[in-house]
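Open question from group meeting: does this chain pack into something compact, or does most of it stay loose? Before anyone orders reagents, we agreed to write out a predicted structure and look at it together. Recording both the input and the output here so the notebook holds the full record.
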Amino acid sequence: MTKHVAQRPQRHQTQRLYRHISSPLLALLTASSVVAQPQDNAPRRQLEEVVVTAQKRSQSLTDVPVSVTALSGDRLSDAGIENLSDLSEYAPNFKLVDSGFIPNIYMRGVGSGSNQGFELSVGIFTDGVHLGRPHQTRSAFMDLERVEVLRGPQSILFGKNAIAGALSLISAKPGDEFEFDISALKGRSDDRHEVSGAVSVPVTDSFGFRVAGRVREEEGYMYNEVLDRDEPGVDESAWRLTLAYAPNDVLDSTLKLETSTREQTGRTYEMIRDSALTRCSGEDTQKNGRRAADANEEGEIDTYNATLNVDWHLEAGTLTSVTAKTGYDSADLFDADSSSFDTLYIFGTEDYDQFSQELRFTSPTGGFMEYIAGVFYQENNLHFYEEGPLKVRTGGVQPTGVCALDTQVVVDTFLDRDFYVDTEAWSAFFQFTLNWTPTLRTTFGLRKVEEEKISSREFRIYNDEGRGSADPATLFLLDNLRINPHSLQGEREASNLLPLVNLQWDATDTMMAYVSYTEGAKSGSYDARGNNDRDEFNGGGRNYEYDDELADAWEIGAKMTLADGTADLNIALFYVEYTDMQVSVYDGSSAFNVLNAGEALTQGLEMDGRWLVTDWFQLTGSVAYLDFEWTEYDNGPCYVGRSDSNPDGSCSLTGMENIQTPEWTASVSTNFTFPLPGNLLVGITLDANYKDDHFTSSDLDPRGFQEATTRYNGRAQIGADDGTWNIALVGKNLSDETTIGASAATLLDVGGYRATIEPARTVYLEGRYRY
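Structure tokens returned:
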């Protein structure tokens, strides 16, 4: 195949990886050979056991035949992990990209774009409840007991829309003793202030409650030269009340009530390439954290979550009911051209409501057969509306090189769109394990899913904000820009039968190996953002409805305890074939459309482990290799300047990689703790997080190519040795790397290119008190 400019530049990626982080990581992975066995009369160090619920029952992480990264609440605090973006630095092959207002989540190179019609490729769950949209995660990352990152399709126990993996957030629950926890921090570079805390009260032997909250303000790490302010400014608050009631040994229940509000001023998009228009305005187009958007961008998201979990512990097993009502309302103003020109300001609103009910029965463990069976129902309703004035200039479509002509407005109109999608889904699932011998077992699973969706999209063009009819000349010009008024409706039904087979073998007392095959699916739906109803390869009419995405996945792995319990190591090899992959692609003019791209293969390796070197020093590390290839994608998007396009204007991406697929990612963390006189304890944590080079736009535009980077984080704290208080100095991105999260060609501005800039170096002081 002919090589294109968009292909990954040839570099010695492995050598770069080794140069940055290999020494400590290799030390970890060879722990079993370098750690001396303790003498019989010496005290034995042991790693703390990690307990997870990745298979809907409490298990040691070493017994779970899935590639999982689990982080406790204390680990989250020590590493300064306060959101999903922070988490992505510590979990192999997991990445969150903040595209400005809506986060995009990728697992093993597979994710969803910023289209309101998309279901998530990575299922997000909080206390067992599926969160259907990324906005819903804003309040979930608070007062957590544990976070579990499960890689690969998790369809049997987590449902249809976990085709790339699942993220499970487990919030802290009321306990048997009184607890009080409060922390506060003050940031330097982004003028950040944050206070968070929790109180847990056991009112009686059978009833208790826990209240948690977080309030955060920050001015932002980018500078808007037009508005003379730092961006994105954030003002958010989140609150959670959890009630626990266990009147006897048979019944226990928790009711969680949660709400959050997030207000944001400004986005993280900045122009990083000159365009026909920015050459006239002279605005900054360097990748330096300075932007020139002239709209007063503002956004607000209000979320809610009410979840009731009830467990009946019976002699035959445990019956669990999970009932939840969740949703959000959002409104935001977005400068869609990200420049000092008023090409398009978009004001949009989203209203989302979701109800779900799951009934699940879990058998006891220890017998020949163990099983989990259940039924699930979910309904959700999404309404998305946006409107805004559109001004098309000569330089936006056919530049002349003369600023007086290029800046002339040739179209001045007003647009709006209305999009609805209502969804109902039912499923039944069954997973059972046959314990053939004490060391050999087989697990079989099956999930049947039925889903119905009804949708409509209305797109209208007016002469001005007064909603008068647009004149024929305006309609003609916009039609040439692939924008036309239209009305589309759709109704679809889908049915999937998703199997799982897993073989598990305890090779020794300290090593478990497994091999598994499973199938996954991601729901098809309707495109919310198309600007036309054309019947062509990337037309808004042909692609208004898109099909389910499907996956066939193999995984081989092993989990080991090493060095007499002072180290552990987890390894997984994966091979996943995708068909009808859903992608969001730029149409080359004015919109991003959703397509079923074709077929893809993702394969690779994941390793993570821990080593308790001494009582006061622990080393943690992970490394992942990812090879993503489009095996069939003949009608993909073209970036500006690509010369081998198809007659219909598309470009072949067959044989190429996907967006957000760094070949190597790795993380190493060292944690030192040592006592001082006066019952004091000092802790020092140093992290290095490596990410290989990768593309940040779906058309693999070289202008959006992100070089390999290593980010360094650190934390130094002193506090009481009983953990009641500490004061810490925390630094993130200490090397002050400037990196791109997402990128795309600029709307209606020839030659322009923009990208979201990820957070710069941040240093803050944190204090915490616990009782």
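Observations to bring back to the group:
The radius of gyration is 26 Å.
The longest helix spans residues 13-29.
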